[in-house]
Amino acid sequence: MLRSCTEAGERALSDTARTIGELGERALLRHLRARIPAGEGVVVGVGDDAAAITTGPLTLVTTDVLVEGTHFKLEWAPPRLLGRKALSISISDVAAMGGIPRQAVVSLCLRPEITLEFVDALYDGLLERAAEAGLSIVGGNLASTTGPIVVDVTLLGHGDHLLRRKGALPGDRIAVTGMLGAAATGLRLLAEGARLDADGALMATGLWTESSRRPIERCLRAQLDPAPPWILARSLAEQHLVHAAIDLSDGFSGDLLTVCEDSEVAALIDPAALPIDPHAASLTRARGGDALGLALHGGEDYQLLFAVAPEALASVRELASMWEIPLADVGEFVAGKPGVAQRSSDGVRPLKPRSHDHFLTTLGMGMTPQP
Ligand SMILES: [Mg+2]
Question: Cα separations (Å) of 84 from 77, 115, 153, 225?
């Protein structure tokens, strides 16, 4: 199936500064095919008219796309990290269903002046992330465009113990993994000139002084290289420990409202219990901003939110600590019209979700609420 490059192709491919327009589609395809290993469950991988894979009793299917100018800017995102993120955001969706990511199909729309070096770095990230998550890239497409670069990933997963957005019951606790607000802070830092290099190390602090290096690096990584805790979701699903789940992609408040709507319950949260990322909090405080607002509405955290029966919370905590994943109990689901409310010093007041809307907002605006 995998054919070796022709001698001419090999000569052409030795110069990674060449553009893919000079190289041509066939040579680029041969080059990429040779780089992509076939993994478990793959009968026919990259290189034929279609891939052939074996699947489990239930196959999860999800698709997501990163569009230049909408989801990333070339000057902000090293291509290796872009490749990692393109897979991670779909891994997060499979995780939210309690599944195991297995095979991905990757389609790229590229301008002819893009270099082979760029495509190789993008694939470095895709292949690395695929290996980490134990999944195989089994196919895809290359298309030429004069418009924005598009990285389109369809991910298949196995799922036999599904988690859904519906299923939260009145009395369930609202549990959240990881820390919130770092990715949204990272987006703002990128707009201010802070940068990571291809290895994820801090390259420029932008408007900030060197003394802020550590929190800046942490927030940029959260934005450019998210790490969804997919393995925890799988374990929780297998042990039937949660009633409902969603991944936090558009913002905690909006994603929580989605669970409320699908489960036909209301949510009451305790803002003091929200796991605000400490690095995001310190940077936001330094500029006089509202770290709680970022954690509530910021988006792109790629953490998970679970509805957990109170009596199961200790077991969920135990599993999370086994995987070294922070888990916070931030409130409860209650009977009532779907909506989100928060406890405050003067009682309970409604919380208006302000999450990212793909059709109302543009890069740098929609995902970072104003303080
Ligand atoms: Mg999702």
Answer: 11, 19, 11, 6
What is the CA(190)–ligand 1 centre distance, in A?
24
pLDDT tops 60 at residue 69: yes
pLDDT of res. 48: 83
CATH level 2 (architecture), domain 173-350: Alpha-Beta Complex (3.90)
Q: What is the rounded CA–CA span in Å between residue 237 and residue 96?
A: 10
Structure confidence by residue, pLDDT tens digits, 34-56:
999 988 889 999 888 889 998 87
CA of 246 to the centre of ligand 1 (A): 6
Task: Output the pTM of the full model.
Answer: 0.90
Q: From ligand 1's centre to the CA of 254, what distance in Å?
A: 11
Annotate 129-145 with DSSP letters as a single string.
Answer: HHHHHT-EEEEEEEEE-
Please state which CATH number belongs to domain 7-158.
3.30.1330.10
Distance 274 CA to ligand 1 centre (A): 20
Give the residue extent of every domain in the chain: 7-158, 173-350
CA of residue 93 to ligand 1 center, whole Å? 5
Report pLDDT for 49. 85
Residue type, 26: R
